[in-house]
Amino acid sequence: MVTYRPGPFALAFAALVALFLLMPLLAVVPVSFTPARFLSMPSGEWSLRHYQSLVSDPKWLSGILLSIRIGVLSSVLATLFAVTFSLGIWMFQPRFKALLVGFVLLPMVVPPVVSAITIYFLLTSLSKFNSIVGYDTWVGVAMAHAIMTTPFAVVLVLVALTQVDRRIDLAARGMGASISERALKVILPNIKFGVISAALMAFILSWEEIGVTLFITSVNAITLPRLMWMGLRDNIDPAIASLSVILIAITLVVLTSRMIFRRG
Known about the structure:
The protein has 264 residues and is mainly alpha-helical.
């Protein structure tokens, strides 16, 4: 089979396009080393004071830990909802399958402001009955994030289920396996990578979510994105640039590790 490789002109053009797209990200790196108290390029002197503030200032550490806690809980809930719904759709093939899938995917197409207002009224109503799941609580924020990320997890799990041969489920059913045994011992092992991808996607979307979070938090549940938004809105803190550099480095490490793992 004939294989076509890009020529030097195509490679150079692709490199220029990639550099153009990466320039805004690269510009953050020197800004994070500025010794000033405001966003500026360092003029001769470089400083690590803003990286140190991420460790010494308790608000940053608190925001990071809270975002991780919310992301883990919301990803677990979203993955559980997605797997349960997708398995039910795939195994039982209900008559209104397309309608049910469309209903679950509504948060993907509804404007975030509409979803945020709806979830706000839901959490404020729940606050009247308990102090755990409600407005401005980390569990309430995790539940809101799970609502917003479940459609994305459903898509990934449904795509994974399309690769499963339905005959193995029919064989298990013919041998007397129960519904739970078919789901847990036959189907789930064949879509485990799809489930893991759905959980990672839900965690990442929860980690960076800001639109809904602004509506349902006040002073108690200050996530990392909200803390960064407050820093940009009230006073432009260069520590945000330092945190951005760290997040970019983590993303590069994860993507590189994934490429090495797939190649290996």
